[in-house]
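Lay summary

Proteins are chains of building blocks that fold into shapes. Our project writes down both the chain and a compact code for its shape. Here are two examples, one after the other.
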Amino acid sequence: MTAFHPTRRAFGRSAAFLVAAGMMTSRSALAALPKPGDKPILTISGKISITNVGDTAVFDRDMLEGLGMQKFTTHTKWDNDAVTFEGPLMSALMAAVGASGDTAQAIALNDYHTDIPIADFAQYKPILALKRNGNYMSIREKGPLFVVYNYDSDPELKQQKYYGRSAWQVAQFVIK
């Protein structure tokens, strides 16, 4: 007598086989990203294992918000007053695409490039800001996406190397 197996009982032997076969597929197939439902605003390529358009991961604003929004208020070197930024943690974004590299190269709409150590994402918890003071950022306001550290959280972050990693108008990341 065989042991009770809920999958077989509910779906039959062929369904149980398909479930078992599915468990052996690649991580990217199991954790595939949905395709954007709206205009894409971010593309991630390079050392990633979870994709949705060819060998890249493409996100629209709703997909980025779906990663969980974090909010903090901080002073920046570009503003006179403290600014409240809101967006997903960079670490959540890297997890969503199965990033396996050491560096995320941010590429802005104006072709500005900066390399950000992925270790920063766990240590300093920067976000990929979509909102500034409660409003979505336009290109003119450093949007639509801005890598922002909470500069007030650690005196070490008030150095040029971290300001240089804070790319705005981000359109792409290449994981290296």
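And here is the second example, written the same way.
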Amino acid sequence: MSHERVKNVSQLAPCLVDSGVVVNKADMLRLLQDLAQVSYSHLEDGVLLSEGQGLVMEVFADPQQATLVANSTLYINVHSFDYLEIGKTVCEQSHFDLVQDNRRLRLVPLSDPMKEHLTRTVNTATLEAMVADALSASWDACLDDDHNFLE
């Protein structure tokens, strides 16, 4: 029985909470695609090569394309990196380190995903209400036109 229990435990998927190393590309995609505005640091052998702020435009997985950081925009290809480290800065802010050999691209979110989600939800609800109002007004206009046509 204990052997079965050990066997079942070894089949469990990893669970990372606020820190850890992610090697699965699909998991890396899932973590990064919610990022919006970030500050980034590009380090090689621990030496800071560049840093700045930008907007994550796209996160994708394609072994034929590059990760691009330019003009305050980031196009991140998870295939450009061996793994992703999740951690916290000294200020207790989450960071995501994309690591490939001696190169590290650190991303620190500048936007709050909870606020972004609420804003998107509110914007979606507002847009849906506007569309419903427009459709209703259009139907009313059509009915008025039909009524005038019948007279």
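What can we say about the second shape? The radius of gyration is 24 Å.
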